[in-house]
Amino acid sequence: MATDTSSGNRLRSVSASFCSSSGVSTCSHPASTDCRACLFKPRCLPAELDGERLASFERHVCRLRRPFRATEVLVRQGDAMRSIYVLRVGSLKALINEQDGTERIMGFRFPGALVGLAELQQPRWLRTFVALEDTWVCQIPLQTLDDGLRGQLLKIMSEELRQEYHSHLMLASRSGPRKVVSFLLQISDNFSSRGLSPSHFHLPMNYADVANYLGMRHESVSRILAGLQHRDLIRKSGKTVLILDFEGLRRAQDLIR
Amino acid sequence: MATDTSSGNRLRSVSASFCSSSGVSTCSHPASTDCRACLFKPRCLPAELDGERLASFERHVCRLRRPFRATEVLVRQGDAMRSIYVLRVGSLKALINEQDGTERIMGFRFPGALVGLAELQQPRWLRTFVALEDTWVCQIPLQTLDDGLRGQLLKIMSEELRQEYHSHLMLASRSGPRKVVSFLLQISDNFSSRGLSPSHFHLPMNYADVANYLGMRHESVSRILAGLQHRDLIRKSGKTVLILDFEGLRRAQDLIR
DNA sequence: CAGGAATATTGATGCAGATCAAGAAAAGGC
DNA sequence: GCCTTTTCTTGATCTGCATCAATATTCCTG
Q1: What is the distance in angstroms measured between the alpha-carbon CA of A129 and the sugar C1' of D18?
Q2: pLDDT tens digits, one per residue of B69-126
Q3: Residue of B96, B127, B164 to mutate for A, most A C-beta atoms under 10 A
Q4: Residue A193 and which of A2, B21, B170, B218 are 20 to 30 A apart at CA?
C-alpha cells in the first residue's frame, strides 16, 4: 500500500475573505505596493501595461490583509477557478491528490511565480497550493485577463512548459544523485532568473517534500545531500543551501552518497 | 557512462523544401485538404476562424509533397524557429540532447497534436522531432500566429501543460509497473480525446523508446508488458495494443511482472 | 523469398535505493 | 525555559530493476 503522505501535515484551510467586496476595492496592503514599484513587474502579467491601463489593472488586483502561514492552503484541488495568483513573498508547494489517495508534489513556487496557469481554461483547480512559510500573494480575478494581457500570458505559460520539460529530464534520469543535483540546479536557476543569488538560497521545504517531488525516499535525499556536502560541493545549515562548486556538482551526478 | 542512445538510429535529415516559394503558395497536397474538411479543425489553431479569415489562414499553411519517413527529422534541436507544425497523419517522438550527449525522449505526438508550443517565444528549437512512421504535417509560419489565434493558442498550450503534469505523475510513481500502466493510459486518453478508440490502438514506437521516455530499461518494459498480457489485462500483437480491462490495469499497478 | 539488421524475449546476477528501525537534532508551543 | 512534535540522520537488510548475456522474433531490403 503506497501510503505516501509526504509529510503528516493536516492542511488547515484559511477563509480567504480578502477582496471583501466592501464596495470600494482598495485591496492595498502590507507596504501597499503598486505594480509600478513591484520588483516583479517586468516578468508579471502587467509587464507591458502603463498609464490608465495599468491603473485599471491595479484596481482589480486584490491583496490579503495577512500572510498565509506554513501549511495553510491557498487553493484546493477541486475549488472553483475564479482567479490566478502572483506569489510575491514566501513559497508554495503544488500537489495533486491521485485517485488512490496518495498525494504527489508537483512543484515548488517562489516569489515572482504565477499560480494557476495550467487551470486557466478549467472550471476547477487541478492542484492544491500550500504555503511552506509566511506567504503573500496578489489575487488576479479571471475577468481581469483581457486580450491585452494574452501576449504576456503566452510568454509566461511557454516558460512554465519549458520548466516542466526540465522536470521531466530530472525525473527520467533514474539515479538518486542525478535527481537531487538536478533539483538543486533547478532551484538555483529559478532564483537566478529572478535576479537572486544562484549559489546561496533558502530551501523552505522539508526532505519528505523533496523526496515526494522526486519520486524517492527522504532517507535517500538526506544521504545524497550529506554526500554532496562531504565532497565540498554544497554546504547546508538549517534551511540554507550554499552551492560551492557548480561544475563539480554537474560532474558528481554519477558518484554515489 | 550512461550511453543512452535509446535506439541506434542514425537520424536522416530531410531537406524540408516545401512551401518552396514558387510565387503562388498553393501548398495543397495529398488529398489537398482544406481546414474546413479537416477532422482536427475544432482542436486546431483555426478552430474559431471562418470565412475570409480562415481563407487567409489557409493561404499561409504549407503542406509537404511527400511524408516524412520513419527516423526522418522534422526539426532539430537548435534549428531556427520559424514555424510550428500540426501533425495530421502518423506520429513523432520529441527528444532532447542533454549536455552530456545522452538523448532523452520527452514525449510522443499523435494526429491532431501541435508541435512547437514550448518553443513559441524561443529563437531556436529546444527539441528534435523525429517521425516514427510515415507522417504528414501542416506547417504554420510564425507570422501567421496573429492576435486572433492567441485565445486558441492559450487553450492548447494549457492543455499541453496539463499533459506534462500527467507525465510528472507517471515518472515520479517510481515503480516499473506503475510507469508502464500510466504510459498505456496516457496514450489511451490521448486517442480517446481525439475521438479514436481508447482500448485498441497502434503503438508506433519501440520498447527502447518507451523505456527511454519512462527512465527505465527496455528489458523491464518487455517483462512488464508480458506480465500484463499474462494477466489478461492487455493483448499485444505486433505494434497493436488492446486494453482488455481498464479497472484491472489500474489495480495491477503494484503487482509485478 | 532469403539474408541481415533491428527489435523483443528470457535468464542469471548485482547493486542502488527502498524499507525498517532507532536515535539525534531542530522547531514549535506554552 | 522545558516539553512535545517534527524533521533529519544513520545503520542494517531486502528487493526491484538495471545490467549483462544469449537467443528468438520481427522487420527490412535487395
Answers
A1: 36
A2: 999 999 999 999 999 999 999 999 999 998 888 999 999 999 999 999 999 989 999 9
A3: B164
A4: B170
Sign of CA dihedral A183, A188, A190, A191: positive
**B238-CA/C1-C1' distance, Å:** 21
User: Do A170 and A179 contact (CB within 8 A), yes or no?
Assistant: yes
Cα separation, B217 vs B163, in Å, equals 23
DSSP string, A17-43: --S---SS-----GGG--GGG-TTGGG
pLDDT in tens, B9-53: 334 334 333 333 222 223 344 545 588 888 889 989 999 898 899
Smallest Cα distance from A128 to chain B, Å:
13
B179 vs B168: CA distance, rounded Å: 10
The set of residues, in sequence order, having a beta carbon less than 8 Å from that of B91 and lying 6+ positions away, is B108, B109, B110, B111, B131, B132, B133, B135, B204, B205
Reference A225, options A250, A207, A198; nearest CA is A207
pLDDT digits (tens, 9 = 90+) for A138-153: 999 999 888 788 889 9
Q: What gap in Å lies between CA A249 and CA A227, rounded to an integer?
A: 11
Q: What's the gap between Cα B208 and its chain centre?
A: 17
Alpha carbon separation from B16 to A241, B13, B26, B77, B123 (Å, rounded): 48, 9, 16, 15, 19
B254, A2: Cβ pair inside 8 Å?
A: yes
Q: How far is the CA of A179 from the C1' of C26 (A)?
A: 26
List of protein residues whose beta carbon is under 7 A from strand D? A 7-9, 174, 206-208, 218-219, 222-223, 225-226, 236; B 2, 70, 175-177, 211, 215-217, 219-220, 238-239, 256
